[in-house]
């Protein structure tokens, strides 16, 4: 191999070491997620999720949960987008994040940095504000986000770039013997049709109901790719747009509301 070819290979290898990781799977906290018990459960907290919490005024709270096993690591980052008004806020105005372990140990993340980070999937610039990493206790961790002003934050949880499961409502409890139980009624098609706008966009995909509202402004294919699904059974259209691509399907899982009522 000549000298020029060797240099090109060396440069390529160096660049590959600095290629940003894939985007975390998005999970948007709802206004009703005011306590950890009401908020979504990230079944495996070692899988990478990007949990967003938007607030209109100080004092508002949003929360979620994440599950860990003994031997896992709890990896959490607090970020804001590099855009107004968030990038103009003082540290004292940025929402706080408190993590409570299964044993009751509480940790409130301190803002220690403003390090720029480019999320390549949506070409969005963020600032890292705080990072937390510690050995996990086995069980469910609670995460509480409290607003200090009008702002939005993103909480990065986990590191594994694979699709993860998100559950809303009570976590399923295993039983020693099979028992008959009622099937959840789910959401009706009339409810889906009623949420047919850019400000409230629900869609049915593969007999499951999704709230796609927060995906409208960040979809790489433009807002129309999502608004065309609002209020409809969007199964065929979604699969026609994305096929079996892993990344869009991973993002879709973060918007799940529940099953479509039969």
Automatic annotation (TrEMBL):
Keyword Transferase: no
A GO CC term attached to the entry: membrane
Gene3D superfamilies (UniProt xref): Cytochrome b5-like heme/steroid binding domain (3.10.120.10)
One Pfam family matching this protein: Cyt-b5
GO function term, MF aspect, one: heme binding
Domain Cytochrome b5 heme-binding, chain residue ranges per copy: 184-261
Entry keywords, A to Z: Heme, Iron, Metal-binding
InterPro entries: Cyt_B5-like_heme/steroid-bd, Cyt_B5-like_heme/steroid_sf, Cytochrome_b5
Family: Belongs to the cytochrome b5 family.
Protein name: Unannotated protein
